[in-house]
Amino acid sequence: MAPESRSAPAVTEARHRDEWGVEFSRIVAFSDGVFAIAITLLVLAIEIPENSADLTRVLEHQRGDFFAYALSFGVLGKLWLSHHRFFSALGRFDPILMGLNLVYLAFVALVPFTSEMLGDYSEQSIAVIFYAGNMFGVSLTFALQIAYSYRANLVKPEMRDVERRVSAPSNFIVAGIFLASIPVAVFAPTAALLMWLLIFLTGRRVSDRLAALRA
Amino acid sequence: MAPESRSAPAVTEARHRDEWGVEFSRIVAFSDGVFAIAITLLVLAIEIPENSADLTRVLEHQRGDFFAYALSFGVLGKLWLSHHRFFSALGRFDPILMGLNLVYLAFVALVPFTSEMLGDYSEQSIAVIFYAGNMFGVSLTFALQIAYSYRANLVKPEMRDVERRVSAPSNFIVAGIFLASIPVAVFAPTAALLMWLLIFLTGRRVSDRLAALRA
Amino acid sequence: MAPESRSAPAVTEARHRDEWGVEFSRIVAFSDGVFAIAITLLVLAIEIPENSADLTRVLEHQRGDFFAYALSFGVLGKLWLSHHRFFSALGRFDPILMGLNLVYLAFVALVPFTSEMLGDYSEQSIAVIFYAGNMFGVSLTFALQIAYSYRANLVKPEMRDVERRVSAPSNFIVAGIFLASIPVAVFAPTAALLMWLLIFLTGRRVSDRLAALRA
Amino acid sequence: MAPESRSAPAVTEARHRDEWGVEFSRIVAFSDGVFAIAITLLVLAIEIPENSADLTRVLEHQRGDFFAYALSFGVLGKLWLSHHRFFSALGRFDPILMGLNLVYLAFVALVPFTSEMLGDYSEQSIAVIFYAGNMFGVSLTFALQIAYSYRANLVKPEMRDVERRVSAPSNFIVAGIFLASIPVAVFAPTAALLMWLLIFLTGRRVSDRLAALRA
């Protein structure tokens, strides 16, 4: 990977490889590690009390936990794919992008917490608001990474057109929908949940249509 | 790895490397990470109460936990080996395979939960049913990945014959046995446990015999 | 990575590749793994009681946990970047450096514990002292690794001047400030907290000034 | 790594790369992952009760936990180094070695549990016995891996003499000392603890002396 990224785009400056000395592939591997651990920690949110006489009833009570597990596994999985796709389009990186990525990962690593809360308290607005807020933080810092990378010329030249059309705007839209779901959750937590599922289902179609519009 | 997989099989289409931009080796590394974390989280299921006067009695009570730990470590270890073997036979991948793999990993990452439940409640049918259901989900999504990969021409040509004879049918058989153990568990949880051990012990022999029959 | 480090600097001795047989890149990957896991485990410190009637009040009570999460994520993120930068400047390693690195990682992996304690008990001096002590341990063992590597000639020749000016002294300063914050915490825990934030904010500027002074 | 191990020793058979299809480097990475996770999970054993009025007294009570953390971090760190050194001497692998390695990893991943128990109950014989038993399991399965690899001709020819003199016998000795500490722990748990520290301190010297004797 190292030789490929070294000889990569002829675009100059940024990167500061000597000043920073952290290899690109390591940052990606570190981000992957945080994703893999966060996605596997989700399971710890499904708690089983010891010495319960009627396990079946306990499990019925945990239906929310299973829903939150499936939702968050899907969300983190999708986020990981997007993150990967975006980083593979990068030719260089700089300190600001690394800082943004770290804040982004801090939101990603928070998902096991907000997901557990959503599983246990989906009927209380505050739990839904926190989950939406977490996802808003994730999508916003991701959209900022993309927008910044284009402005700072960090994207591989041959990737510029493909990525620009799709990634940045659709991510700002997702961030916006999560933001919009926060006031909804204050009055109707379940309606906010449905808004997210819609993002999940239509995500691909919206970004395709956006790409078509711009092309 | 990248150059190897790029120049790999002459088979065309699928893959969509430009559209997806996620490198094959990263998907494998991510899957490995989820396996390694899930297998190491199994230990958290063996709980020790603080300030117990008689630790020996506590530990006797946890015999089920040790059995579940050993069983699930063995099962996840075997699954990891199979997953690896299968992915090393792949020449390409596509979005559908990646989606199937993510659902598969969601079942794998669930094992620490169902394993903890099995350790604490092996005498209650519902715990055995959930474990069997989890394993059914794992084996089914794995079998589907294999079947789909053959249909979509994602397997390296030189691997086609070797793998086809063995992998897919034996995985459908394992999925079937786990499915069959669910009704058994309703009436006799222990009998279902024994059915799984049989899979474990005879697994290799059955697939060898199947391969011989087909050859 | 292997070929690069093998043919790397013409400096002799140390390394003992035959005697130790552990590849350099593996030590880095292992350290990265510990960092990624520790940073992701931080989230487990934010606990949510099940079956609480008023989740909003519970979350207000956990404000300290969120502060500790953000602080420790930032600290571990910065530490990881520094560790990486330093290791990429190394041409060789020896048993003593590996031992120091293991002690360093033991302090890194302790952060989820001291961070959880800080989140729950930031008004009690002992929690702040433990956190400061943990960070002192991390910065001291890191500074020792750097100092030792220069003495034992383990740094790549072309990196010697760049790194020497910046890394070692600024790390000893950080270790010193954490040490100084311990007596402060005895009387005023909050003042100690502010001292750390100052390190965080001024860290870069101080090391730049130091580098300028020496140049 | 792949090309190196492919063209590696001219020794034939075993390996069964086609039949098994799991790459050597992946097995090493998986083992590394389990080690990194297990060593980082150790910290979860140091529990902090919420809402305690006097945290200082709580922490004094947890002295055993800190001792267990330091001991187990050191032990797992040493084990990881040995495991790595041994695997880097391997030219090939086969199903039996992989099975042994999986059992070995099951004992490694169990350490966070026995370590937590040791921290909480070091005055009760059973906790010390379990820890010794766990370590006996680890050292025995490691010694078996080494012994088997020599018998099955899996070690690189150029490494045979270096490794044989040192690794296998000293590992059987360590396994033996842990086994011997079990009856000691029945009557005097603290004496068993001291026996382990002796292994740790003298380990290197003993294996050097053994190597000298044989040479």
Q: What is the compact description of this entry?
A:
The structure is a homotetramer. With about 220 residues, the first copy, chain A, is an all-alpha fold.
How would the blueprint of this fold be written?
The structure is a homotetramer of 215-residue chains.
Chain A: H1 2-6, H2 17-20, H3 24-41, H4 55-61, H5 63-88, H6 95-108, H7 111-121, H8 125-151, H9 160-187, H10 189-214
Q: Which terms would index this structure?
A:
10 helices, mainly alpha, homotetramer, 215 residues, disordered N terminus, globular
Output mean pLDDT of chain A: 80
Integer tally of domains of chain A: 1
Which secondary-structure class do the elements of chain A indicate? mainly alpha
Strand content of chain A: under 5%
**Quaternary structure:** homotetramer
Question: Got a strand count of chain A?
Answer: 0
Residue stretches of chain A low in confidence (pLDDT < 50, at least 5 long) are: 1-13, 15-21
Distance between the termini of chain A: 32 Å
Instruction: Give the helices and strands of chain A as they follow along the chain.
Output: HHHHHHHHHH
How would you describe this structure to a colleague?
4 copies of one chain form a homotetramer. Chain A is mainly α. Chain A has one domain. Chain A has 10 helices and no strands. In chain A, helix 8 packs antiparallel against helix 9 and helix 9 packs antiparallel against helix 10. At the B-D interface, helix 3, helix 4 and helix 5 of B face helix 3, helix 6, helix 7 and helix 8 of D.
